[in-house]
Task: structure prediction
Amino acid sequence: MHMEKDMLIQRDPYRWVILALAWLVYFAFGLILSSIPPLATTIANDLLLTFSQMGAILGSVILMYVPFAIPTGVIIDRIGHRKMITAGLILISSSAILRVFAADFETLFLTVLIFGLGGPTISVGLPKVVASAFQGRERGLASGIYMTGFIIGSTIALALTNALIIPLVGTWRNTFLLYGLIGLLIAGAWILLVKKPTPKVETRSVMPPLRKILRSLFGLQSVWMVAIIGTSGFLIYYGFGNWLPALLESKGLNAVEAGVLASFPTWIGLIGSVFIPGIAKAGSRRPMIILILLFQGISIIIVGVESGLLLLTSLAIYGIFSGAMMPVLLVVLMDLPDVGADYTGVATGVYFSIGALFGFIGPTIVGYFTDLTGSFLPPIILLALVMEAMIVVAYLLKES
Result:
């Protein structure tokens, strides 16, 4: 009887409508999240900021995940994702709009920090959407698909901000205003169209007490190991990725060229995001995680020291494997027997709470050591070493 019910759920086409809306939500998230890196040099010059200060601002988008990701996951598991994702979209859009009024380091830092109040509801809520509507290999496919929304939003911000948007709207302040308004429009679409609840799968008839859920999840070694491996992804994405336009500018490229080239690994990341999560079956994804860690670490060092074709090739390799990292790790979490659809929110909250701290530390470290040494290379080598060290943790990971 339960098998027939699950088969009917899987045939329900509404899950693809929900997935399309989730894609739009993550598009807005990526657009606003990645709107600062291509403008980092311009904003720093305009507001007279050091690299260290700019690094703190680049990291502040993720800082509030540390205290809020787990509580957000608990709330989403309890009351559902619709209202929480709506609130998150409004907050991240407001963060972009309020940057228009930034006058110094403190005001810009605070307005960017608001993003972190809304971000966890989206980062934690969307895996819950996928886990509730999809099963088996479809879960990996759906995770990869909605992640492309983030990738395309990020890529547009990186590639077009200096090349198209600034000439169109005039200033970096108006750019943030435009991106914030786009986020509000998508929030409106989410409110209007997500009326039917997402179909539930793997639903337990009675939810245990919250304390028991948390104790159970916190006692799972695999949950913690996935979260620890994920810290390196946050460290690299926010530390290396957010500074990539400025790194390329330091190699002699102008702002437009640097923005377009910095978007290249994000475009290529579509390949990794869509195809890699669906390749390995549940319980056999550990070798894939090890390869992802290995190639990311090697490629970012090559990006730091090379130019020309080798630089482009390394950016492509970095893009493919960085695009795959989060979808693969989140699918591993969803498929853990003691997590499933019911507790994906809390488990994902643990993942983002731990990772977020390193998402803040990454760009701050890069900014500090660049100020100290006058080069981006030393902090990039440090990030790569951390990434490679996570191979040991991945080797010990048990998926069941």
User: Anything to note?
Assistant: Residues 158 and 259 are 5 Å apart (CA to CA). Confidence is low (pLDDT under 50) at residues 1-10, 197-205.
